[in-house]
Design brief:
Blueprint lengths: L1 E2 L15 E6 L6 E5 L13 H13 L9 E3 L13 E9 L5 E7 L5 H7 L7 E4 L4 E6 L14 E14 L5 E3 L5 H9 L8 H8 L4 E5 L16 E9 L4 H15 L14 E6 L16 E3 L5 E5 L6 H11 L5 E2 L28 H7 L7 E4 L6 E7 L11 E4 L12 E6 L16 E6 L9 E7 L6 E4 L6 E12 L4 E11 L1
Parallel strand pairs: 9-11, 9-12, 9-13, 13-15, 16-22, 17-19
Antiparallel strand pairs: 1-17, 2-3, 4-5, 5-6, 6-8, 7-8, 9-10, 14-15, 18-25, 19-20, 20-21, 21-22, 23-24, 24-25
Length: about 500
């Protein structure tokens, strides 16, 4: 059966202890059936602190759930690595008729989200702030910054670049930081002075405007001692670069709380939805190691990203790490974990103003960057030959099919293969600098649970002259799914390909 489906552009809730699969929908809340990493009751996934940390790491890396449910929440005030213990609370979310997204934060012994939904209490809950905790309580909206719970990347997000000035013990404790000024950093990330390729230009162009990047602002430079202009702030900390990445960024967070009188509140959603920490050269990994931190890293499904030195200014690294904030996993090719360089979640490139590229087909699906009418979903074996015409995804989303998803009915998280996604990787516009498979149909598979991970794997780069992609045991154990391209036509104004899908059984 061939169907075109409308995907609801909902804000995903970061979940730690369960993987959620859609079972039903409501006008106000989309509910889920939750299963643990081992396929049983969610509680069965919990165990010793070591095992629980491992499960959390797998589920955060594998998170692509875009539905609403009762879930464990991560404390935004806690340390920012993936091993942070979750708070003993649950959260529910709902979307009102006007499109506003709300979150209900509850003690763990509260009624389930389903029960609250049935009682229709969401709309009537008051707005409020529990000052003793310094965090929004009950039903609240995230104010001018919108809801930043990671997931589908739809709507406006605010971003803050934090230039950290730390001490360098190798230079007698002298302050050290990246060399760029605040104005230069703002230009490199937001294009405020005319920079042509950066986080803002690429995310907005690749999403065709459904996602907007807004530089954070706070205070008035004429009257306030501390303020934020054009999305950048400089923070001087008392820590030194050899104390590690988290020691320095956590010190910067505490300093921001002092600067802007936040008390115990997390700066997330008050100052910005996403934070880019520009770490000083020489910043080490954590735990007393002398090894330098990675060139860039992020919390998957979180709000923090870290960049070593000048990597803060490179657009591919910016796109890559913010992608992880939106639950995107690694973009692999074969055994190379970041080998898919057709898009931004492959290997980052240390260049200014390039490359101009976007994301692969599975990641576009997870981000919600397509038009509902432009998605073709193949959910059962085609009878004979199925030909689908697709256009390059850089063309207007509503002008034709830009995305194909082939759903594996046998998929259980471990059996056979994963779901498959295709698009035409047209080498033009915001994707003109794609690093491989330009003007070809790229085929990626993706696990939908922690059992196989949320990362993608590039398994095909097709044009009319290449051999088809063959996947054994897809629709049934004794069948082979065959994907080929019978034609590609690329002109200055259009890009189109015909994708052929067959299911051959023996």
């Amino acid at each position: 059966m061939l169907t075109a489906t409308r995907r609801l552009h909902l804000v995903a809730v970061l979940f730690i202890r369960a993987i959620c699969l859609p079972t039903a929908s409501s006008r106000y809340l989309r509910t889920n059936k939750c299963v643990s990493a081992n396929g049983g009751n969610p509680a069965a996934a919990l165990g010793s602190p070591q095992n629980d940390a491992k499960i959390r790491e797998e589920l955060v890396e594998g998170s692509s759930c875009t539905f609403y449910e009762q879930l464990a929440a991560v404390d935004a005030n806690a340390a920012a690595d993936n091993s942070t213990s979750p708070q003993d609370i649950t959260i529910c979310t709902c979307e009102l008729d006007n499109g506003s997204t709300f979150v209900l934060e509850l003690p763990s012994n509260s009624p389930s989200c389903d029960e609250l939904m049935k009682k229709k209490t969401f709309k009537r809950q008051p707005l409020g702030v529990d000052n003793s905790r310094g965090r929004p309580s009950d039903l609240f909206q995230h104010g001018k910054h919108g809801c930043s719970l990671a997931g589908n990347a739809i709507g406006s997000r605010t971003f803050l670049v934090v230039k950290i000035v730390a001490k360098d013990p190798n230079k007698g404790g002298a302050p050290t930081s990246i060399s760029q000024t605040e104005a230069q950093l703002s230009d490199r990330v937001f294009g405020t002075s005319g920079d042509l390729v950066n986080l803002k230009t690429q995310y907005e162009a690749c999403s065709q405007g459904v996602y907007t990047v807004t530089p954070a602002t706070m205070g008035n430079p004429k009257i306030d001692k501390y303020y934020i202009q054009n999305g950048v702030v400089t923070v001087e900390v008392d820590t030194n670069v050899t104390q590690g990445r988290l020691a320095n960024s956590n010190a910067a967070i505490n300093k921001l709380k002092q600067m802007f009188n936040l008390g115990s509140q997390s700066p997330q959603n008050i100052l910005a939805n996403h934070f880019l920490f520009c770490m000083p050269p020489g910043t080490t990994t954590d735990g007393g190691s002398t090894k330098l931190m990675n060139i860039a890293t992020a919390t998957t499904g979180g709000w923090q990203t870290w960049f070593l030195g000048h990597w803060c200014t490179y657009p591919s690294a910016q796109m890559h790490e913010i992608g992880h904030n939106h639950f995107l996993g690694r973009a692999a090719e074969g055994t190379a974990p970041y080998g898919d360089t057709a898009g931004a979640v492959g290997t980052s490139i240390g260049q200014h103003d390039s490359p101009k590229f976007c994301f692969n087909a599975a990641q576009r699906y997870d981000l919600g960057w397509y038009h509902p009418s432009g998605l073709v979903e193949v959910t059962s074996p085609p009878t004979g030959v199925l030909d689908v015409n697709i256009i390059g995804f850089v063309q207007p989303f509503a002008s034709g099919t830009t995305l194909i998803k082939i759903v594996n009915p046998l998929y259980t998280g471990t059996a056979y293969t994963k779901n498959i996604y295709l698009h035409l990787n047209a080498q033009k516009g915001p994707n003109a600098g794609t690093q491989e498979a330009g003007n070809k149909v790229t085929v990626v598979d993706k696990g939908e649970s922690s059992a196989q991970g949320a990362g993608t794997n590039l398994i095909g780069k097709l044009d009319a002259s290449t051999a088809p992609v063959q996947v054994a045991g897809f629709f049934s154990k004794n069948c082979v799914l065959t994907i080929s391209v019978t034609r590609i036509q690329i002109t200055t104004s259009t890009s189109i390909a015909t994708v052929r899908v067959q299911n051959v059984c023996v």
